[in-house]
Structures are given as structure tokens and as C-alpha cells.
Amino acid sequence: METPALPDHPFTCAMARDLGLDPATLFRLVAYGVLRHPVRDVYVPATITDSIELRCRALTLVLPEDAFVCDRTAAWLHAGDRALAPNEHLSVPPISCFRPSDGGRLRNKLVDSGEREMAPRDLMSIAGLPVTTPLRTALDLGRLQRTADLKLHGMDAMLSLGTFRHEQLLAEVPRFNRRRGVVALRVLAPLADGGSESFGETAVRRRWHDAGLPRPQTQIPVLVDGREVARLDMGLEDLLFGGEYDGAQWHAADRTEHDDVRREWLSRTRGWHLEVFRKHHVFGPQQEVEHRLRTAYDACRARLGLRPTYLL
């Protein structure tokens, strides 16, 4: 069959009629694979790659007035790939789209839905789509994600946007008293830090806390003649002690020599002691971050004539 001219964006049945496409033609185009029919009353040309953004645009056309996007989808809309967990970019997840309490959940193939109490100040609009604000998104991620690392990573990512302060995040925690996930939120919200630039860095920093070390500074600049020549993921400048996470995306084999040279220079000329971690050091049954950090921390204290922390 001859393919009619199609728009380069999702469209509804009403929009199709304006293009001269009747229901029978739409049915045939879907059957021949020319169109996708992801949700009732919405069509998408098959040539358009599926993505979170595309699914959100499709939902915008048919959402009930009281529905809103939240959780990890809202985080992605605010911060892009920075908000994603490892390998989350490999597939397109369902859109987290909820309605107010007693509003009833949405039921279609594109969404992961439910009901949630929401104040007007918790919502904003992005390209016509009602979305939880960065602050409310941080609070929900800090309560409702599967693991502590994901909870803290979500709050870090939202803080990094600079639209609210850490103090504002902490001030909002009591409003969720007696709500699901608030115990984890109380523990993790004080640890949130917008300087963390990846999921791996957040995970190392949480284990840093679990090891009992003082709160680290993030993204520490190293200057030569007033020019930044290096930046450390996290550390304690007074002890010249730091930790770094080498993720596979930014520290592949072809970067190893460069990283080694940089760290050797930091040690030799600046006196820094850096503990470097990769994925297998941080996650899984063999993770050793806490032990290595505590041992190195006490060694750095001893270098300055300070007592080991286990004697304090």
C-alpha cells in the first residue's frame, strides 16, 4: 500500500482525521508496521526511535488533567542521563505516571502508575507535561527507590541541578512522617550531595559514610598557578586523602595510563593518598570499600601524627 505523509511526532485519532487518515487507514498502517499504537488513541510513526522523551510526548496527548509524571521519569526529564542508574539507558522503562489519592491509577502499556498525595507546589510543567519539581522528585526518590544507593543517587542528581538547597531538602523530610520509606529518607537525606557526578561516586560516598569517616568534600579542584589541572571525586583536603570511582564509561582501558600518570603526580608532588575503586570493589559480595577506606584514613592520620580512629 502507498504510505501517506505522516507527522514526525505522536498524534491522536482526531489529529489523524485532520491529515485525511480515517480509522481504517490507521488500522492498516499499524498492521503493516508503518505506525505503532502504544496507547489508546495515540499513534507514532515506526521510523521514530522509542525513548523516554517520545513516550512522554505521547502521554501528553491523552493524560487525565490530574495525572503527573514522577520518580525516575521525572528525574530523567530534569537531569537527563545524569539521573540514570548503570545500564538503565539500554532499555526504555515504563513512564512513572501517577494520579492524586483516590483518583485511580492509569492503565496502559506505557506507564507504571499508582496514586500519590501531591500538593500544588510539588508540580511544574515541562513541555506541557505535569511533572514533580526537582525537590519533590528528590524526596520521592529518597523514599521509594529499591536500594539505598539508588535513593541517594536520585537525591544527588536533583541537588546537582541547583534549583534547591540541601537545607530545603532536609526541611521537607518531616512532611513524610509515617509515610512509606521515610525511615530511609531520614537516614540518607543528610548525606545527599549535588557534587556527586555518577551513580558509582554516590555509592562510594555512601560506603565512605558507613566506614565512619568524616563527610568528604566532593569535586575537589587541584590548582597549579591558579589553573585547575585535576579534580578529585571526593576527599578530605586537611589529610590529603581522597577516593575515586573509575566507571567503565569514562575510565576504559585507553584511559588507564592517563589516570595512572595523574594520580602518580598527585601523590609525588602534592602528597595526596587516593583510594581508587572500580565496579567489583563497590558492588557485590566481594566489595571492600569500607575496609580500604578506613585503613587508608588511619594511615593518613598517622602520617600527620594523629591517633588511629579505633583508639578514639
Description:
The chain is of the alpha+beta class and 312 residues long. The protein has three domains: 38 residues, no CATH class; 129 residues, no CATH class; 113 residues, Endonuclease, Chain A, CATH 3.40.960. Helices cover 37% and strands 18% of the residues. It is built from twelve helices and twelve strands. Strand 2 and strand 3 form a beta hairpin. Helix 4 packs across helix 5, helix 6 crosses helix 9 and helix 9 packs across helix 12. The longest helix has 15 residues. It is elongated, with a radius of gyration of 24 Å. The termini are far apart.
Keywords:
about 300 residues; Endonuclease, Chain A; four-stranded mixed beta sheet; three-stranded antiparallel beta sheet
**Which runs of at least 5 residues are low in confidence (pLDDT < 50)?**
none
**Number of separate strands:** 12
Number of contiguous helices:
12
Estimate nothing, just give the exact number of structural domains.
Answer: 3
- Helicity level, as a percent range? 25-40%
Distance linking N and C termini: 81 Å
How large is the share of residues in beta strands? 15-25%
Helices and strands, in N-to-C order? EHHEEHEHEEEEHHHHHEEEHEHH
Radius of gyration: 24 Å
The description of the largest β-sheet is: 4 strands, mixed
